[in-house]
Structure formats: structure tokens, C-alpha cells
Amino acid sequence: MQRLTLYICLASSLAASPSMAADINNADYRAQWHTDIHTGYQNLATQGQALADQAEIYCKAPSAEGLEQTKQAWLDAFLAWQQVRYVDFGPVEQENRAWQFQFWPDPKNLIARKATYLLQDEAAITPEKIDESGVAVQGFPMVEYLLYDQAFSEGSRALPADRSCQLLVGVSNHIADNGEALANDWGDFKNSYVDNDQYTDTTIRAAMAGLELLEERRLAQPMGLRGTGKRSVYSADAWRSGASLSSANATVQGIQQQFLPTFSKLLNDRGHADLAERIEEQAEEALAKFPELDRPMAPLLADDSEFRMLQSLYVHISQLTALVNDRAAVELGVVRGFNSSDGD
After folding, report:
1. What is the predicted pLDDT for the residue at 336?
2. Mean pLDDT of the chain, nearest integer
3. Which of 6, 164, 193, 222 could form a disulfide with 235 if both were Cys (CB 3.0 to 4.6 A apart)?
């Protein structure tokens, strides 16, 4: 109830600012967006619980096959998160949930340092311990570290060591609990979201920020097109598991499935049918580039001939971002907001 009250207060404050096409009722668009995003959150909850269940199964009866099944469960849940990662408003803002799911970027390798500390400590790894250990411990990157980090996997604490299994199960359960709570809270958020016209702009800006983050930080930076100018897989997310490009694919899929259908209808209803069609086609073209890139990013960065495939993908993502952020948003009068890809 306290969380729902917070969202209702936020909705009331949003109503005081100018809205896009305030003379037109956008409630139907928001109702559909709410349904589609809810489906994504429910999938995250389901996959998060599957990860928690599989982690417990593996740690009770460790085997090479069980480890591979746990890795697959992690990937399924992680990709479910990537599909809704662009949603940066509403219940996901509560208690830094987005950071809890994915602490990134991590330039100081805090995840490895936190894991080392917790595994050396003698205190029991309880749910309370996970809660108080901070966002670097609580999400997908920590589980990825335990499952995939090469140096860790070759050390004395490698899974299925008892304390490492405690951390694996504890963090996986934390992810599952957060996924379930987020899906439930998004459901409770429906009336506040649908009844407030400002959430039309907010939803569009969330997709804009998600695409820009994908283009600028998740692709351009590891490719050496931003920042230091040097190619480095360590700037990408999910580099330990080699899932950087799979996660990018999932983000585009999420935006295509949850955001674009209603966004296209909105554009059509505003007299921009040609632009809506171009955006849909560009999303399809971008997604078509991923199957040939279904591999870790590191080898693609190291080989110039392979790197050209990454460059082609980047161009398609950039074109999609430009169509949504520079063309459609302008036509609809949506002002781009600040996001983490802007830098400090």
C-alpha cells in the first residue's frame, strides 16, 4: 500500500506539467502499453523463479549437467530482464530495483570484490545478508560471476563449493522475489498509469533512453566508438557469459513487442503512418542482424573482418534510434529527457 501511494503521488505531480497532445485522450494507448509491459514483467518473474529453483536443485545434487542447466536458467532470466530493461519509471524505481537486477557498468570490478569478501566472511549468507550487501551483490551480474568467471571457476571456491552455493542460491532467490514483486506492483500501478496522460510521454521517453543506452553504451563504447576509442569487451554488459549481444537482441525484441505496436498505432492516429512503417521495418532489419552475431563479443572485437558485422549491427541500431528519438519524438512533441548514457 505504501508503494502504491508513492506511485499515485508521482502520477499527481506529473499531471501538473504540460502533456503531449493534452486535448486527445491517450488512455487507450496506455492501457495497451500497461498490458504488454505487464506481460514482460510476468515473464521476468517466471524466469527468475525458474533460476532460483534450478540453483537449489544444482546445489543439492551438483553435476556438470546441472551446472549447464543453471547457466541456461540464468540466461533465460537475464534475457527476460533485458526485454523490460528500458522501462525506467514506475515500480522499477522503487528501492533501486533496476540496479538490483543489474549493477552495470562496473568499471572497478566491484562484483568480483564483493563476491570475494562474502565468500571469505564467516557470517551466514542469509536473505538479510543479501539485502544489506548492496546492489552489486543482488542481481544477475553476481550470479553470472559465480557461474562464468574464468579465474573464479579455476579457484578453490568454485561452484559447487558450499559457501559459493549459498551465495548462488541466495542471490537467485533475491532476483526471483524482486521479479514477483515488480510484476505485482506494476499490476497495482495500472489505474495511476492509465489515468495520467503524462505517462504517454514518459513511456516514449523510456524507449528513447533504452535505445540510446543500447547504441551509445552497450555497443559503441565496447566497439571503441566512444570513450577511450579502444575496443574493450569489458565495457559491455554480460561479458563474462559472452551474452552481450544476446542481451542487446533481447532489448530490441522487448521494445518491438511491448512498445512499438502501440507506438505505431499512436503515430498512425496522428497522421504519421509512413514513419510508423519505417520504424517497424527498421526494427525488423536490426533484429535480422543478430542471428549471425549469436556469439561472444570478444572475438568480434579482436578480428577486423568479424568486427565489420558488429559495425553493420551498430548502424542498424543507430538508424532505429534516430527514427524513434529524432523523427517520431519530434513529430509527437516529446522532449528527450536525461539518462545515464549522457555521462556525468
Report:
1. 80
2. 92
3. 222
